[in-house]
Design a protein that fits this description.
The protein is α/β, with parallel strands linked by helices and about 300 residues long. It is built from 13 helices and 11 strands. The protein has a single domain, classed as Indigoidine synthase domain (Indigoidine synthase fold, 3-Layer(aba) Sandwich). The two termini are about 30 Å apart. It binds pseudouridine-5'-monophosphate (PSU) and manganese (II) ion.
């Protein structure tokens, strides 16, 4: 049985086949995480950044029920402007494919698709995690569980500060997911560099991160690894300022009874509005930085295997 819904761009397939470095990129950030036209501009910037650092980019999305690993400009425009694009997480993939729908992939779905295509590295902005107030709402992103199920190394600026970062770390610890601080001792908090939550391991080079991924493979792990790469200092937001804005956005989501997969896009959109666009600027810079670091790790890894 072969997945006839998997369309791997020829450049990507060739690179995977030759064991060359490839970096997967997600599409939820394009369709649900950023406004137009910055979403499309950022997607292009990320692909360029991956190339500049020696790897082949593969942006992943579902178009007409087919998982595309690597998309073209026309498909990118469609994902960035279309209004009927679903948000696909692990639970959604089989149904979306069957119904031949269009969907952007979250971290969990992107990890699944990347692995299916033979790609081991993936750069994003922030992963989903345990939401504030999860004790009441049970809102825990499927991204966390995915790390224990799928062997992909994900470079992110940590968990979004809209989440409960200590609980997110506890969850990852329970699932046995290796978490690495890239040049830092604490898990980054997306908009700012230090969450106050220590990571179990710090590395100071791309090579050291690649070695850890290789070790996990040699140990027979079938789980992923989270790399926390902080936003560059000059683009960091003031912790006090963004925390106040987050409190406000979270409160609004509660009043409006926003639930399920709509929570994260709602919070990101409100933060963009409340901060007058500053949160978006930081978001773009951190995800670019993640694409660079991820490509560098993928390059190091390709020299080890
Ligand atoms: N981080 C961002 N923007 C985003 C997301 C994360 O800066 O759009 C997306 C990712 O695709 C992540 C998803 O996987 O939000 C998590 O959604 P949820 O909390 O519903 O699991
Ligand atoms: Mn959720």
């Amino acid at each position: 049985m072969k997945a006839d819904f998997l369309e791997i761009k020829s450049e990507v397939a060739a690179a995977v086949n030759d064991k060359k470095p490839v970096v997967a990129l997600e599409s939820t950030i394009i369709s649900h995480g950023m406004p137009y036209p910055q979403n499309i501009e950022t997607a292009k910037l990320l692909e360029e950044t991956v190339r500049k650092n020696g790897a082949v980019p593969a942006t992943i999305a579902i178009i007409n029920g087919k998982i595309h690993v690597g998309i073209d400009d026309q498909q990118l425009d469609f994902l960035g402007t279309g209004n009927n694009i679903r948000k696909a997480s692990r639970r959604d993939l089989p149904g979306i494919i069957a119904a031949k729908e269009n969907a952007a992939t979250t971290v969990s779905a992107t990890m699944i698709a990347a692995h299916l295509a033979g790609i081991g590295f993936f750069a994003t902005g922030g992963i989903g995690g345990v939401h504030r107030g999860a004790g009441q709402t049970f809102d825990i992103s499927a991204d966390l569980e995915e790390f224990s199920l799928t062997p992909v190394m994900v470079v992110s600026a940590g968990a979004k500060a809209i989440l409960d970062i200590p609980m997110t770390m506890e969850y990852l610890e329970t699932r046995g997911v290796p978490v690495i601080g890239f040049g830092v001792d604490e898990l980054p908090a997306f908009y700012y560099r230090q969450s106050g939550v220590r990571v179990p391991r710090r590395v100071d080079s791309a090579k050291a991160a690649a070695q850890i991924f290789l070790n996990s493979k040699l140990l027979g792990y079938n789980s992923g690894i989270l790399v926390g790469n902080p936003v560059p200092e000059k683009f960091e937001m003031s912790r006090d300022k963004i925390e106040k804005c987050i409190e406000q956005a979270v409160q609004e989501a509660r009043v409006k009874k926003i639930i399920g997969q709509d929570v994260t896009p709602f919070l990101l959109k409100r933060l963009f509005e409340i901060t007058d666009g500053e949160s978006l600027e930081t978001n773009i810079e951190l995800v670019k930085n993640n694409a660079e670091v991820c490509a560098r790790i993928a390059v190091e890894y390709s020299q080890m295997i």
